[in-house]
Amino acid sequence: MELILFFLLGALISVLSGFFGIGGGFILTPLLMLLGLAPIEAIATSLLFTIGSSSSGIIGHIKLKNIHWKAGVIIGVSGIVATQIAHPFVVFLDAYQLDEWAIPAMYIVLLSFFSVQMFKKKSAQQVTNHEVQPSILKMVLIGLFAGFVSTSLGVGGGFIIVPMSIAFLGMLPKKAVGTSLFAVLFIVSAGFLSYAFTVEINYFMGIFLLAGGLIGSQFGARSTDVFDNKEITTLLAFLYLTTILSVALKAFEQNVFGLIIVILYLLYFFTVLGKRHITHWREEKGYS
């Protein structure tokens, strides 16, 4: 029964992964910590899950032509370099028992910054109908930052890559989502390998999370086609705020309330998603 629940959890999170281009790890890691896993084990498990969910989501975004291949490779390779710096940092935190507060604190600071950025009028004004040519230097810097954070926090790095690609590379949100998933695959693969031989991982849990993830990512990627760019940005900003609250509550040992907040957001998101798909289907069939 527990493994079935992990399968369903993987499917739900991977829908968000395919829709937002975030890999899913930045939601899964705090959830696994809320469920009782040690931070370093939660990080390694999340990276394993993100490999599968990103791979599946990429397939969906290829069909929608949402991937900027050059940017994805540059960001991804830069991220791989940074993962090798981040792994010793996390091992240091774990050895001195600093991970229980340091990792949640890093989450809260980063997510707070990006949620504010997504809500700012300046960011919203950049959601236009055209793109600019991304700067190679900016792509490298984004990759280095995302790679370090990815391995430090057990996330794909997409929750950094997507808003930074929109704000600093001039990408449209839908293109930023697809490109992010492609770059994330490079980063999490390297990050997971750095943990695989040093951390005890529950592979049964990981496999069931992964199996659910392969299903959900495809649906999430296709769902971006029935939303406009501004709507995707707004939904992502609210997701960041939800995760901030859940991690903060975990820090104060209020795990139940943290889970409730995450569940409420998921109910809201999937209600909006379901309604939009029904409306889209009715329009295609010519129903009023």
Automatic annotation (TrEMBL):
Q: Report TM segments.
A: 27-51, 71-89, 101-119, 140-170, 176-196, 203-220, 232-249, 256-274
Q: How does it sit in the membrane?
A: Multi-pass membrane protein
Tell me which family the UniProt entry assigns to this protein: Belongs to the 4-toluene sulfonate uptake permease (TSUP) (TC 2.A.102) family.
Tell me the protein's name.
Probable membrane transporter protein
Decide whether keyword DNA damage is in the record: no
PANTHER family associated with the record: MEMBRANE TRANSPORTER PROTEIN MJ0441-RELATED, MEMBRANE TRANSPORTER PROTEIN YTNM-RELATED
InterPro entries recorded for this chain? Answer: TM_pro_TauE-like, TSUP/Inactive_protease-like
State the species of origin: Cytobacillus stercorigallinarum
Q: Which UniProt keywords apply?
A: Cell membrane, Membrane, Transmembrane, Transmembrane helix
* Keyword check for Glycoprotein: no
